Amino acid sequence: xxxxxxxxxxxxxxxxxxxxxxxxxxxxxxxxxxxxxxxxxxxxxxxxxxxxxxxxxxxxxxxxxxxxxxxxxxxxxxxxxxxxxxxxxxxxxxxxxxxxxxxxxxxxxxxxxxxxxxxxxxxxxxxxxxxxxxxxxxxxxxxxxxxxxxxxxxxxxxxxxxxxxxxxxxxxxxxxxxxxxxxxxxxxxxxxxxxxxxxxxxxxxxxxxxxxxxxxxxxxxxxxxxxxxxxxxxxxxxxxxxxxxxxxxxxxxxxxxxxxxxxxxxxxxxxxxxxxxxxxxxxxxxxxxxxxxxxxxxxxxxxxxxxxxxxxxxxxxxxxxxxxxxxxxxxxxxxxxxxxxxxxxxxxxxxxxxxxxxxxxxxxxxxxxxxxxxxxxxxxxxxxxxxxxxxxxxxxxxxxxxxxxxxxxxxxxxxxxxxxxxxxxxxxxxxxxxxxxxxxxxxxxxxxxxxxxxxxxxxxxxxxxxxxxxxxxxxxxxxxxxxxxxxxxxxxxxxxxxxxxxxxxxxxxxxxxxxxxxxxxxxxxxxxxxxxxxxxxxxxxxxxxxxxxxxxxxxxxxxxxxxxxxxxxxxxxxxx
Amino acid sequence: xxxxxxxxxxxxxxxxxxxxxxxxxxxxxxxxxxxxxxxxxxxxxxxxxxxxxxxxxxxxxxxxxxxxxxxxxxxxxxxxxxxxxxxxxxxxxxxxxxxxxxxxxxxxxxxxxxxxxxxxxxxxxxxxxxxxxxxxxxxxxxxxxxxxxxxxxxxxxxxxxxxxxxxxxxxxxxxxxxxxxxxxxxxxxxxxxxxxxxxxxxxxxxxxxxxxxxxxxxxxxxxxxxxxxxxxxxxxxxxxxxxxxxxxxxxxxxxxxxxxxxxxxxxxxxxxxxxxxxxxxxxxxxxxxxxxxxxxxxxxxxxxxxxxxxxxxxxxxxxxxxxxxxxxxxxxxxxxxxxxxxxxxxxxxxxxxxxxxxxxxxxxxxxxxxxxxxxxxxxxxxxxxxxxxxxxxxxxxxxxxxxxxxxxxxxxxxxxxxxxxxxxxxxxxxxxxxxxxxxxxxxxxxxxxxxxxxxxxxxxxxxxxxxxxxxxxxxxxxxxxxxxxxxxxxxxxxxxxxxxxxxxxxxxxxxxxxxxxxxxxxxxxxxxxxxxxxxxxxxxxxxxxxxxxxxxxxxxxxxxxxxxxxxxxxxxxxxx
Lengths: 576, 576
Prior knowledge:
The structure is a homodimer.
Chain A: H1 7-25, E1 31-42, E2 47-56, E3 59-64, E4 68-73, E5 78-81, E6 83-88, H2 97-105, E7 109-114, H3 117-123, H4 125-134, E8 141-146, H5 164-167, E9 176-182, H6 185-189, H7 193-204, E10 208-211, H8 218-226, E11 231-232, H9 238-246, E12 250-254, H10 262-265, E13 277-280, H11 286-291, H12 295-304, H13 309-316, H14 318-323, E14 340-343, E15 351-356, E16 359-363, E17 366-367, H15 377-383, E18 403-408, E19 415-421, E20 430-436, E21 445-451, E22 459-462, E23 471-475, H16 478-490, E24 494-499, E25 502-508, H17 520-536, H18 547-551, E26 560-563, E27 566-569, E28 574-575
Parallel strand pairs in A: 1-4, 1-5, 6-7, 7-8, 8-9, 9-10, 11-12, 12-13, 18-21
Antiparallel strand pairs in A: 1-2, 2-3, 5-14, 14-15, 15-16, 16-17, 18-19, 20-21, 20-23, 22-23, 22-24, 24-25, 26-27, 27-28
Helix pairs in contact in A: 3-4, 4-15, 12-13
């Protein structure tokens, strides 16, 4: 029988750890680990300091002269605090959190703040629960912001519809830091009680609230900030960022896969502004994670763009930690977590060693093995059974009425209004596009046309469809469209490139239809192969065959979007 | 019958307030108050900004162009956030919290963090409760750090003995920010479980822990910081401060009545260090509060010593607010409290208007009236009955054995070891000193001698006796000593100057024997009069007749102290 720990028992347990820390710090006992002769970044005095760094109980206990049971000589290297990603949707890596952790550990990241917005749009609060379990005790500390916009818009048909009360109990979880990006800025500044009550509830729990409000200015921005939104990661120009910073918002400088704002915002990395700035990626796709890196890539790029190294490093660790009230990390000082990154020098910025709570987790790119978090069988089963849609046939896609045509724009996710069509015309690059509601077996299929995608044969389908993750398909004929969608359903989610009824490439994404059960490198290989197959089938070079599609169903980006109810004009806010 | 508010009811109440804030911020409704044409300090962008500042529901809702039900034109003035005192013992003002609040409001202070260490040494947890009630809803927001050292040392006979469990329930109070200055640094670095468990418990409640460790260096300092002590206000030289700051402690630059460190620490007020610095007073005596001011005085002095004004102002408000996680104050930005100070300019720094939550509380030195907090009759009665000591006679002070002589040092609170004496010798300035235990009727009276005090006739007694607040008396004869002590007891506490059995001056301090029920100006007049009478009776000019005495019983300051058990040698840690 397990006995619940008493308060006195808990204090006594923590006391004993603390007394050990004190014994080691004062030099009376040996440290568990000492980084000898370290040159380290001091984020408090904004300088490089020198000395041994001693660790006990997973915590830094002191800097100075120490001896340890294990000693690592870091002469000539630079020791930094582990990095924090202030805002990411972990699902965007397409892999499970353990695989994600392995990838970012190698790049020096020891804490990420994730918004499980994608999986929650599929699985509702079970999605939050799944991600909490899938990240428990990972050597990258994964903290959560609760999705604020499920569904993302009233037009979306997602897997759940969450009000403030639905997410409320999660605020008590020790790894929940607050409410994630409040995308519905229009709702906030126009006193929409549903969205504002979510902010109010997060505040009532003394939690943080992140923002998402590109281009908001003046009194509207005042209203959004006054409502209680403490940060923004959508600034793509400096004036926008400074206006928000002046009103007290923290600025998350975003440099990810889909959006890259560092170059525009690098002037913020100076004495005047840096205290209010941190880094985030928002989305990191597999190849980007594997090839470029993570927060280390941002720091390196910031330095190359002229930022002072210590300033950039503060934004990469300390400032995010303070914002999220994670006051035991983001610095090398007594009492802080033993989360370290050892690099060669600021110019090359090669990551040699990464420690998490004093454990060496990555040695020159080789990541140590660690336990896979156990996930409740109910949740595993739930995550692998998220498709509720009947088998489709060509007839489901046949339609005689004229429908709007989404015009693709090379290198962008916006679309143009390319008029109407009532049939596929491959020669003129008029293809059919459809979104199939897949959460609740409603039978809703929205039809339209697309121009500029370039596909010459077969069909391409994906279950990554922001933000509701229905199935989106583009085809040169209805039979292949039906076959591609059926195959996605059969896989419990994924990406399918198909011709004449036969898949030519597949990326299975069986976890909620948005993440894979396979290793990151495997997923990346399959994805790159599928991309190649899609290009081979004619997809235009300026278009990412899958990511661009994933955004065509998000009814907040101009001009035309395809929804489960048909083509929607974002500018006029009407179905056309 | 009062009905407990449901969670849904609470959220709805807060939502309605928030929607009003949004309506005003967006310009759709009039503000309650607008400061028109403001030039204000922006602590985020570190510059002066310009615009109207609008307030609703006591909160700043926006800066820009606004109209209000009430408008105050502040053209040509500078608007600052209200000031915070990061560490004070409010009892040191000798008046009740309402009187204290009136005094500091006039100087632009809108939040203070108090450690009710003095009253708690008298009344135990009832003292904490008394101060919480006496500060409820004051227009100066009074936040608490729970006394960590009651009694201050094992040698003290104070009114209570508090372990971690005794103060634990107070952490749930919404105005308790953590554990107050951990003075027993020796205990911490030597793994004293009793003091360390207090730190552990405060951490378990996710609260702050303040420090007090003058001169601690090296691995001892590491141990103290690693134990979980987040700040220090005892730095009197720059190297000490930088060593602590480098280890992650926040530095409270203290400039109060008894200790003044600003001049030594003003170099911290620069870009490199300021983020980790704030201001505090620790102790402010009546005349000092009335004549010099409070945090405004520190800012003004810092500017005169060369600090950049905006840097000094950040230390006076924003940095303390962030440290204590009071994230709704210390800045002029949407969502922050409408706590403002309007000054003429940075050079003269005259405070013209002070607003608390959007209410004008001080207009050119005239403080608006406000309600006196109601205090539980039990606590009021308890606070006024803290003397438990029988009537004394000259015989109680007669002693034939030789006792140690405390040597007073002009302008200091340290003493020298001035040998032994077995009798009073007024001609040689050898007077008798005694401490009378007064909390528990133990009959303990510690006797000794004192040299350098200068009194030529009668006796001086006070119940302000750091930190246990027993009664201390110095006399030229035993009969007057007994009479002075009896009079202190009769008053339920206070300061008495007496000659030939008749008081020549008195300062009644009937609240726990350390605070008055009278207005600050009255207390100040009585105190100044009593001082004059003491000097008239011969007290040496370099000695503060009462404050110096108050410290002679604190057995942590070298060389000799007088305790309820006799003369104690701090250096050899022995009774002599």
